[in-house]
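Summary of Year 1 activities. Much of the first year was spent building the evaluation harness for sequence design. The harness presents a backbone, in tokenized form, and records the residue chosen at every position. We chose the following record to illustrate the format because it has been used consistently in internal testing since the harness was completed.
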């Protein structure tokens, strides 16, 4: 999936069908594939959970006994970008939901606060990075500063134009520090966004998700697509690749993102750290303690 969904310059989003399902096995054609994909996400999720635990355990062990040869401890950062209603929240719920909350570091980026505006655009992003051993998820990201900032003219063109290089430098710095970046655009169609916005309007339980400004952004659809295409073209690097996931079909979207994460974990060759104590001696001490406490020398029930 990493090979299939990865994009490189020049990125043409119009050529990627948001309803397509690249990489889905042929055998799953027809009505069953939705159920099949949902089952797979649950299975993949269990594997993601195990890998995340290895990442966490390895970082914890490295912290407890740092050695001179230690590489920077690993962490994974999933960057999710999409138009409104693109499914970032749903993806996080279903894909990240399979992992242990203890090892997750999820951050959402809204309009900058007055304090954030007093700093460089990457300031708040640096503060939101996952610590070593964690899987970070960015619900929107520093890319907003070349997307909404560009389309809504929040800053002069010279400012947002300079940001592509700044982002590449920043992401290079992150990968050098042991962060494995997975940048994903959930690619929905104009029609699908319209349907999802209507759903939000029609369902009182979804009004809290609706924002009248979504319609203003929707009116600038083509400008946003152009801004996305340029951001992906300029910032898809070997160190920090961009993936485009067709996202009109939610079940495919979740399946594809789960696969991207699994394959990313696989590149990290994770494992559990070896014990940093003498196993035999610890067993002996445990046994001695049991005996000393007046027991039979055996653990109850074992
Ligand atoms: P959904 O996709 O479900 O609508 P959302 O990600 O839009 O969810 P919201 O809290 O509704 O979540 O909106 C976040 C808003 O913050 C977006 O409109 C986004 O454009 C805006 N935003 C994020 N980063 C920046 C930024 N750097 N500058 C200006 N606006 C930003
Ligand atoms: Mg929104």
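For this record, the design step produced the sequence shown next.
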């Amino acid at each position: 999936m990493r090979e299939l969904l990865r994009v490189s310059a020049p990125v043409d989003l119009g050529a990627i069908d948001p309803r397509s399902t690249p990489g889905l096995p042929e055998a799953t054609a027809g009505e069953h594939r939705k159920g099949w994909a949902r089952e797979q996400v649950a299975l993949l999720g269990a594997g993601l959970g195990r890998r995340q635990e290895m990442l966490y355990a390895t970082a914890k062990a490295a912290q407890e006994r740092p050695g001179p040869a230690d590489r920077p401890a690993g962490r994974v950062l999933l960057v999710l970008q999409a138009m409104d209603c693109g499914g970032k929240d749903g993806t996080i719920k279903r894909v990240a939901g399979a992992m242990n909350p203890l090892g997750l570091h999820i951050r959402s980026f809204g309009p900058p606060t007055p304090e954030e505006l007093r700093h460089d655009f990457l300031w708040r992003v640096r503060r939101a990075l996952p610590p070593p051993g964690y899987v970070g998820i960015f619900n929107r990201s520093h890319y907003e500063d070349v997307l909404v900032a560009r389309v809504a003219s929040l800053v002069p063109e010279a400012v947002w134009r300079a940001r592509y290089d700044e982002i590449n430098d920043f992401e290079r710095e992150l990968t050098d520090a042991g962060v494995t970046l997975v940048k994903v655009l959930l690619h929905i169609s104009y029609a699908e966004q319209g349907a999802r916005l209507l759903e939000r309007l029609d369902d009182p339980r979804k009004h809290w998700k609706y924002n009248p400004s979504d319609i203003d952004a929707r009116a600038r659809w083509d400008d946003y697509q152009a801004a996305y295409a340029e951001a992906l073209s300029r910032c898809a690097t070997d160190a920090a690749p961009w993936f485009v996931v067709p996202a009109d079909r939610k079940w495919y979207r979740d399946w594809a993102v789960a696969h991207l994460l699994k394959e990313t974990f696989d590149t990290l060759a994770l494992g559990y750290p070896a014990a940093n104590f003498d196993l035999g001696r610890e067993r002996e001490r445990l046994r001695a303690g049991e005996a000393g406490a007046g027991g039979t020398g055996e653990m109850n029930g074992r």
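The chain has one domain: 2-271. Quantitative recovery figures across the full test set are reported in Table 2.
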